[in-house]
Design goal:
The complex is a heterodimer. By secondary structure, chain A is of the alpha+beta class. Chain A is built from 9 helices and 21 strands. The model of chain A has no long low-confidence stretch (mean pLDDT about 95). Chain B has 11 helices and 23 strands. Classes of the chains: A alpha+beta, B alpha+beta.
């Protein structure tokens, strides 16, 4: 069944079951991926997946939901019946409705859907990348974590009031994590991830170069003394922190009492006036963008922090109604609808007179710690409390030398971190999770082995 | 067999599919595969969420799918699909064969499937014995109400999930198995707040194959435990960072062994060349007080199985005996690629993942000391009563958050501390586990790795690590 036929099928089955109000989200995907081990194909994978999530509203306007991978006529009927049963337990205190924007026009980016290149070509490309990466430095002995994949998928949203949205696209991903070994030293590992609309769009050479440079740069390592340091966050690591604490801008989290913000936090000063943060799922550099969310609301750019102050929250239909505003296109379909950011954009505002602009990661000669990548986010972040304690990969810059840091964590509080931003560099870098410049923060605690 | 001869019948759960499965395997072998494995799954899941004093989410789900794996030499091709018709399965076999680019004329022999091993017989009634959504909702609401012990508790949540999975596994070595798996988990979470202070507490409980377990769950005890933990930590100071001895509590304290050492004993790590223990079999890798086990047979434990996802009954594997490495955790691909015999540990989240060597119930065996012996032996250190999550990097370095910690001074527990992270490497920490308590207990968890998220049990008695890096402020 295609998405129009599924809609018709659901409509018929809902009529049969006397269900007047329903909506659904569906995704259909074909994925292909390869992994290699020293020139040999290791695992080759292909999958066809289909997922259908149906919500129904019962006569008391309570919502029930069911998810299934069985998109047959009988599967759809069963899903509707189960959702109807689940609706008896629907949340009476927070009703859910269709998004008022579910029929608004959506901005579909220029279609960048590619055709599959096929497993054989994926394998050839990845084999070549592995060989080049190993040959790039004598210490690189293997690429234990690697993969090249391409996905082709369609997302659909439709409801009983006639809303229908469908969007199909392709995406490819390459990751290369090299392992370097030198005598009498611990093995070191680092890597790179690149995305593209198709395998042919991925900049394989830059992925190899980045993985190689990062891995080699960690060969000379040393422990760091536990202390407070001036920190320079790479664009990737700063975006990791912002995403980890995005519940500060999330209306769902605020209602649920698990956010550091509250309903009155709009306007609260969090940081230097030089800081602007947006959520911009439709950004031209966001390869993973989708034009509508799980409730069919069009995706849009939302300013989260404007000149250091909280400007907006992100919303689903129900949170927007509670906050007396409009949905922002950040909902995930569920009986309890989730809210999450799409793609974070960090930039320097024009109000940047209070910054220490001499702090530039490529020229600054004083002592500082450069945090390249933060790890173990799920374990080291307490989003509801604002605290974090995270291991990282990075370097200590001292006396004109750059030494990789072994086994260290950076710890602190997100509000303290934002308040102590001392410079936002001008140049932004695109990462897989957003765009950000390098961000400098003073006086963060680092624990090391030295 | 030509695809034009394919009849359009489907896999039917609860019925004998032997002829159909044999046809599909014959088809793959005939096209040049060395080995063909079919994993078919039918799931029926539900989850319920209670927040404060209301049910806010009830989410049933169901689905079906198949994963087909073909080996040629040491290479494997894996295809997953939701299409359980013969045509769909044959197409998946063809796709896997095509991916592997099989061109040689060598043909393996397939002698048909063995007698059906049916592990479902006593389990078919489970679906009717598990608690109803109504019953679950009532108990969750009583539980969240129990958490409301003072006005500092600002958020209360209770969650339940039930996964019922019916599987059929057939492969060209004759394996033909059916099984039903039931997993239930229930968790409680709170956030406490007072002025600028905030803390959280959580506990999760789980079982496998015990439909009545949720009814027996002591929600009052669980609520008291979560509440006390959040209150103890509410005004806690941040821990000072540094190197120090630590005592790790039993139950979920075992997560460190699981993450830091257990994963390095999976044959997938040998295949990648990422374990420092690859050539250490029968060598000392840990303190002599450490014996570690991985097994899938403890009745009701979250990581227990009647049969693994490759059709092998799980064994009890002594991984480390008195500090000496004795065994690796292995699956079919692991045996093929590393030579370590299968241990009944081939596991996967669902049909869309190929099985891989994964832990089941993994724990450090009990020793002879009391908890007090361990704490009394430390003049200044940290007691980690409750662990949060953690991870292990590509070079074996691990880090774990301490959810509930207390300073040890002169052999006594003193102030609660927060923000602690334990950092180290298994190779260096294992020899420093110098004392094991006599109070082994297990705790359920979910482990995410190459073949998805699987149910596991972690465990240990109280253990003392002589020195480890504690991250803090």
């Amino acid at each position: 069944m295609n998405s129009r036929e599924i809609t018709t099928q659901i409509s018929k089955a809902a009529d049969f079951l006397n269900l007047k109000k329903w909506d659904y989200g569906a995704s259909f995907s074909n994925d292909y991926s390869v992994q290699v081990d020293k020139g040999e194909a290791k695992q080759l994978k292909a999958s066809q997946k289909q997922i259908l999530t149906i919500r129904v509203w019962n006569q008391s306007n309570l919502v029930g939901i069911t998810t299934t991978s069985d998109i047959s006529e009988s599967g759809i009927k069963k899903a509707l019946k189960q959702a109807n049963i689940a609706s008896d337990f629907g949340n009476k205190n927070e009703t859910t409705e269709f998004s008022p924007l579910a029929k608004d026009p959506i901005k579909v980016k220029e279609l960048k859907k590619r055709n599959p290149v096929g497993i054989k070509k994926l394998l050839t490309l990845l084999r070549g990348a592995e060989v080049k990466l190993i040959e790039s430095h004598e210490s690189i002995k293997s690429v234990p974590y690697n993969g090249l994949s391409e996905s082709f998928f369609e997302r659909v949203y439709a409801n009983s009031e006639g809303a229908f949205r469908s969007y199909s696209k392709s995406q490819a991903a390459l990751y290369l994590y090299a392992r370097a070994e030198e005598k009498n030293k611990k093995p070191r590992s680092s890597g790179s991830v690149k995305l593209g609309y198709g395998a042919d769009d991925i900049d394989i050479e830059s992925c190899i170069k980045e993985a190689s440079n990062k891995t080699i740069s960690h060969l000379n390592y040393s422990s760091i003394k536990t202390d407070k340091y001036l920190i320079c966050f790479s664009p990737e690591s700063f975006l990791t922190i912002i995403n980890a604490f995005s519940s500060m801008f999330n209306a769902r989290s605020i209602i649920d009492g698990v956010s550091l913000s509250n309903k009155n936090s709009i306007g609260e000063k969090l940081s230097t006036e030089a800081l602007n943060i947006y959520d911009d799922g439709l950004h031209e550099k966001n390869i993973s963008s989708t034009p509508f969310d799980g409730e069919g609301t069009p995706t849009k750019r939302v300013c989260l922090i404007n000149r250091g102050r909280i400007e907006n929250f992100i919303h689903s239909e129900s949170t927007a109604r509670i906050f007396k505003t409009t949905p922002t296109g950040h909902a995930g379909l569920g009986s309890k609808v989730s809210v999450s950011p799409d793609w974070i954009v960090v930039e320097k505002s024009e109000e940047n007179f209070d910054l220490k602009t001499s702090l530039d990661h490529s020229t600054y000669e004083g002592e500082f710690v450069y945090i390249e990548e933060l790890n173990a986010i799920h374990a080291g972040v307490r989003a509801s409390q604002g605290s974090f304690s995270l291991p990282f990969d990075g370097w200590l810059y001292k006396n004109g030398k750059k030494i990789s840091i072994e086994s260290a964590t950076v710890a602190g509080d997100i509000k303290y971190l934002l308040k102590n931003i001392v410079n936002i560099e001008s140049s932004q870098e695109v990462t897989t999770s957003g765009i950000s410049p390098h961000i400098w923060v003073d006086e963060l605690s680092i624990t090391g082995d030295a | 067999m030509l695809s034009s001869q394919i009849k359009s019948n489907d896999i039917v759960f609860g019925s004998c599919n032997k002829d159909l499965l044999e046809e599909i395997i014959f088809y793959g072998i005939g096209l040049g595969a060395d080995f063909v494995e079919i994993f078919i799954e039918n799931t029926d899941n539900s989850s319920v969420l209670a927040e404060e004093d209301f049910i806010t989410s009830v989410s049933p789900s169901f689905g079906r799918g198949a994963g087909i794996r073909i080996f040629k030499g040491k290479k494997d091709g894996f295809v997953s699909t939701n299409d359980l018709t013969k045509h769909g399965l044959m197409r998946s076999v063809s796709q896997a064969i095509e991916m592997l680019d099989i061109t040689d004329n060598k043909r393996e022999v397939f002698n048909g499937l063995n007698k059906h091993r049916d592990y479902c017989l006593s389990k078919k009634k489970w679906i009717n014995e598990v608690p109803s959504i109504h019953e679950i909702s009532e108990k969750l609401l009583v539980s969240t109400k129990s958490l409301k012990k003072n006005n500092k508790i600002i958020t209360r949540k209770g969650s339940y999930s039930r996964n019922l999975q019916e599987v059929i596994i057939a492969s060209s070595d004759g394996t033909y198995v059916s099984d039903i798996r039931l997993h239930q988990t229930v968790g409680l979470n709170v956030i406490a707040s007072d002025a600028q202070y905030r803390s959280s507490g959580s506990r999760r409980f789980g079982s496998s194959g015990m439909p009545n377990e949720f009814r027996l769950w002591d929600h009052e005890k669980a609520a008291n435990d979560v509440f006390e933990s959040s209150m103890n930590m509410l005004y806690a100071d941040y821990v000072d960072a540094g190197q120090m001895p630590v005592v790790l509590a039993n139950k979920f304290g075992g997560v460190i062994f699981h993450e830091a050492c257990g994963h390095l004993l999976e044959t997938t790590q040998i295949e990648r060349g990422t374990t420092p223990f690859e050539n250490k079999l029968n060598e000392k890798i840990a303190h002599e007080s450490v014996t570690a086990i991985d097994e899938g047979i403890s009745e009701g434990s979250f990581g227990s199985l009647s049969v693994d996802d490759e059709g092998m009954e799980p064994e009890k594997s002594v991984l480390i005996k008195d500090g000496i490495l004795k065994k690796f955790i292995s699956d079919r691909a692991g045996e093929l690629r590393t030579g370590h015999k299968r241990t009944g540990s081939g596991r996967r989240q669902n049909y869309s993942f190929a099985a891989a060597s994964r832990m089941r119930n993994t724990y450090i065996a009990k020793g002879e000391h009391s908890k007090e012996d361990l704490i009394n032996s430390i003049s200044e250190g940290l007691y980690c009563k409750s662990m949060g999550g953690g991870s292990v990097g590509a070079t074996g370095q691990f880090n774990f958050a301490v959810e509930e910690g207390y300073l040890i001074k002169n052999g006594k527990l003193t102030n609660p501390v927060k923000g602690a992270t334990l950092i180290g490497e298994a190779k260096e920490v294992m020899p420093k586990i110098s004392m094991c308590g006599n109070d082994l207990e297990l705790a359920p968890g979910f482990c995410g790795s190459i073949s998805g998220s699987v149910n596991v049990t972690v465990g240990q008695p109280h253990i003392k690590v002589d020195s480890i890096t504690v991250g803090g402020r």
